[in-house]
Amino acid sequence: MKGAVFFRLAMILGLAVLARERPAAAEDRAPAVVIGSKGFPESWILGAALTALVQETGTGSATHKKNLGGTEITYQALKAGSIDVYPEYTGTIAEVILKTNRARSPAEMRTALGEAGIAVSDPLGFNDGYAIAVTKSTAERLGVASISDLKAHPELHLGFTHEFLGRGDGFPGLSRHYGLAMRDVRGVQHELAYEALARGQIDAMDIYTTDPQIEKMALVLLRDDLAFFPRYDAVLLYRADLGARAPAALQAMTRVVGRIDEKIMMHANAAVALHGVSAEEGARQLLSDALGDQGRARAPGTGDGQGLVPRVLRNVGRHLELVGISLFFAVLVGLPLGIWATRSKPVALLSLGGAGLLQTIPSMALLAFLIPLLGIGTAPALVALFVYGLLPIVQSTYTGLTSIPSALSEAADAIGLRPGTKLRRVALPMASPTILSGIKTSAVINVGTATLAALIGAEGLGNAILQGIALRDTGLILEGSVPAALLALLVQGAFSWLDSLLIPEGLRLSSRAP
Amino acid sequence: MIVLSQVQKRFGRKDALARTDLTVDGERCLALVGPSGSGKSTILRLVLGLVLPDEGTITIGGEVLDARSAPSMRLRMGYVIQDGGLFPHLNAEDNAVIVARQNGWSAARAQKRLMELIDLVGLSSEHLRRYPIELSGGERQRVGLMRALMLDPPILLFDEPLAALDPLIRVRLQEDLRRIFRELKKTVLFVTHDLTEAAYVADEIALLHDGKIVQKGALAQLMKQPKDAFVTEFFQAQRLPMPAPDEVA
């Protein structure tokens, strides 16, 4: 039976996903610590450093889920238990996580987070606060040295990260505090903002005080003369049960407490962000600077040490896996749903409307929704891609089936075809060109959307793109985006071939006829 | 034998078919003739069970037609529509055997039946591999006829089968249909709006107007003794000779 084969295939694919999700399931009972990091190099370096520290103890495994994204996503991952620990900043904890207006004392923070089952370490030693930066030439031309000086220049173009624009302790608070009334304020991704600043497309931007670009571009940090910005002391956020579950690992990680000052951090940041050193190598340098250990073992890489071709091939493979599996399930659900919709008005309204609604959820929002439910990694990425793939398939199935000429549809009934035979032998083959084009649309959309899966720790071509943007490394961006574009073309081509295979010859002849 | 007794069908407010009694005896061909919307196609769809009567009953071969019995009863009727009603993605052969195969006929049995029919409908075996788009209008109609005859049903229903064909092909098909009806001795309902076609192919004509059968009988009878003005008018519109002194051109 065709149906049985289909079912078995679905099972195999499903199991393949599960197996991927639990790489350590078969290992011994030694505690497995999962370390997360946010979407910028400093966080990656700290994440890699923590990973190396745990691995050195030899008491259990440590995995680094690198580059998870913004605070919301990473903190949700911690709360959901997808990761055990990640580096965070006190100012961010107060504002974004606890959503309070002003700084809280460390003790207050501990209590509030403790209620959520999250513990806080003592500060690591450096303050990575916000500051407003301008180029040296702008500073000299306008004679600005402090944030108050900006008041006299409402014509300046400001580019801030989306997070800074949205946070109370970011631009909204800053402009109120200083009475700024800028006419042009826009959201720009952090690393791209440096590019924009260098090219004079923006005049000022928000920076973190340990950004290596400060030194390289000789930027002028405007003095916070009215004392607006709170401190952003780096700390570790970890699950409260970690101490009991993996005491040796926790102890190893807290070795960096009080040991990393601004200079050490900026040094490691510069190595990674400016000199193209891997985060693991940067972490090695950081630990050697901070802990004074000489000749440390090279930190195990997460694949960054591979050559270009195997790395691209691996990413393409993972990318295709994401697209293939999500598309498979989108067809498995979308096709029957589209068929059902042709038989019931309420189902048609509900399924087409529902799939349309899901389509409008921005991908970042959808991913943020899915983390508390599914954690991070491949599973939420597959679900998101499945959701986005659904509408074109349901829609095209419905349209294809309902646009069969009514005379032929009635003839099928009248000559005595049973509903099942009619669907299989007449309706679906006649609708096949439309249905296939819907599936193709889904596939091409998903090749593009799957790059976003890297935001939540699923691998694929998006990783190279996101890291490339963060490092301002065009080569890395191309390494992700060129294969992604080729893949989209390949999918198009594959579907033309599928068309010739699946669309009945009689229909192809008809469509060529004048 | 097809019997409609007191059958009524409404679509919205309009009577598609007013209370109607109609009997078609075995081995005869009745043509349903009338302008569009007169109810002739509605009768066909009622007989097929595609729509069910609001009032009255339909029996076919003594068995009452309802929602439950309709699917199996359709297998005892062959149905041919304008342009053959062939499925464009299936070649002529697959179109012809689709119902037989559904009902468990072996490929060999279907093939044998196909060969019997191919001569009857005037096609050759090379037509069988062609798709509808590769066949002429007349050939498509002959394949449609083959499909209708496949299960050798006692009843044949035609819904304006020749309307889209050009005159010469049309005449040839009319001749073939008449021959086939006589040869196979089927009960036939033949919907057309063309009186000469009806007169040539059928044994009897029922003329419909506004959901009612106005008059039923042989062509000569309708011509000589028109029951009302509509009959006369309809004959005149088809440029058939009528004893109508006030007719000018």
Q: How would you characterize the overall build of this protein?
A:
The complex is a heterodimer of chains A (514) and B (249). Chain A folds into 3 domains: 31-125 and 233-291, D-Maltodextrin-Binding Protein, domain 2 (3-Layer(aba) Sandwich), CATH 3.40.190.10; 130-221, 3-Layer(aba) Sandwich (D-Maltodextrin-Binding Protein, domain 2); 308-512, MetI-like (MetI-like fold, Orthogonal Bundle). Chain A contains 23 helices and 10 strands. Chain A has helices spanning 2-21, 41-57, 71-80, 90-97, 106-114, 136-142, 162-166, 171-178, 190-198, 213-216, 242-245, 247-253, 262-273, 279-291, 308-343, 345-360, 363-374, 378-402, 406-414, 419-449, 462-471, 474-502, 505-512; strands at residues 32-36, 61-65, 85-89, 118-120, 130-134, 157-160, 184-187, 204-208, 220-221, 234-239. In chain A, helix 3 runs parallel beside helix 17 and helix 18 packs across helix 20. Chain A starts with a helix and ends with a helix. Chain B is α/β, with parallel strands linked by helices and 249 residues long. Chain B has a domain at 78-152. Helix content of chain B is 37%, strand content 25%. Chain B has 9 helices and 10 strands. In chain B, helix 3 (92-102) packs across helix 4 (107-120) and helix 3 runs parallel beside helix 5 (137-149). Chain B starts with a strand and ends in a 12-residue tail after the last helix. The A-B interface holds A 407-408, 410-418, 421, 425-426, 429-430, 504-507, 509-510, 513 and B 48, 50, 71, 74-75, 77-79, 81-82, 85, 87-91, 98-99, 102-103, 131-134, 147-148.
